[in-house]
Write a structure and sequence with these properties.
The chain is α+β, with helices and mostly antiparallel strands. It has 3 helices and 5 strands. The protein has one domain. It has a 5-stranded antiparallel β-sheet, covered by helices on one side. Strand 1 and strand 2 form a beta hairpin. The longest helix has 12 residues. It is globular and about 35 Å long.
Length: 111
C-alpha cells in the first residue's frame, strides 16, 4: 500500500464533509472544525478507511498508540480516535468535541 496516496485519499474524502472552519491543510496534517450535524458523516467517512475507532473501544491501546497520542496531549472521555500503523508509518484521526456541544475538531495526521 502506498501510504501517502492513501492519506491523500482520506483527506479528500474528509474534505467532502462541510467544515465550519478549515484550520490547517498540509502534506501530513488536516485540521478542521465541523458542526454537530456533520459528525456522523465524518465518522462514517473515517470508518471506511480506519475501521472501528481505536478509542473508545473495548480493546486495549498498544504502547505505540499511547506514545503517539501522548505527543498530541493524550485522549479523554468523549473523544474519538481512529488509528492505523504499519511499521514506521502511522495515520490517525482524532475527533475532539467542544464543550459547546455544537462543534467538533478533527485532526487527521500522517506520521
Amino acid at each position: 500500500m502506498n501510504e501517502p496516496m492513501v492519506f491523500n485519499q482520506i483527506k479528500e474524502e474528509v474534505k467532502k464533509v462541510s467544515f465550519d472552519a478549515l484550520r490547517l491543510d498540509c502534506d501530513n496534517l488536516l485540521e478542521a472544525v465541523v458542526v454537530k450535524e456533520e459528525v456522523a458523516k465524518l465518522a462514517s467517512c473515517l470508518e471506511k478507511f480506519f475501521g472501528e475507532p481505536a478509542w473508545p473501544s473495548k480493546n486495549r491501546m498498544s504502547l505505540q498508540m499511547r506514545k503517539t497520542l501522548d505527543s498530541y496531549g493524550g485522549i479523554m472521555a468523549g473523544q474519538t480516535l481512529y488509528y492505523w500503523a504499519r511499521g514506521a508509518e502511522t495515520m490517525l484521526a482524532m475527533l475532539w468535541p467542544w464543550q459547546d456541544g455544537n462543534h467538533t475538531t478533527i485532526k487527521l495526521v500522517k506520521r
